[in-house]
Design goal:
Oligomer: single chain
Strand order of the largest sheet: 2-1-3-4
Shape: globular
Number of strands: 4
Order of helices and strands: EEEE
Distance between the termini: 28 Å
Largest sheet: 4 strands, antiparallel
Number of helices: 0
Structural class: mainly beta
Strand content: 35-45%
């Protein structure tokens, strides 16, 4: 499995921001991971799903973490 970071935009669209990178699986021992991305859309919320493939257009896997609405 890979962990994909998604953004729900203010227009209620969903955008794949990329794969969460970590030294090991989901999070390392320090409970940290990294992602660098750029988007022209204004985020409404950010969430992470567990997926079989990082190169997908829409989330299909289980939602692991989410933010509150901005």
């Amino acid at each position: 499995n890979v962990y994909v970071v998604w953004m729900e935009t203010s227009e209620r669209r969903t955008q794949n921001l990329g794969q969460l990178k970590s030294a090991s699986n989901f999070l390392n021992r320090a409970l940290s991971a990294s992602l660098q991305t750029v988007s022209t859309f204004e985020p409404r919320r950010i969430f992470i799903t567990s997926e079989d493939d990082a190169a997908i257009s829409y989330p299909r896997g289980r939602e692991i973490l989410t933010t509150s609405n901005f």
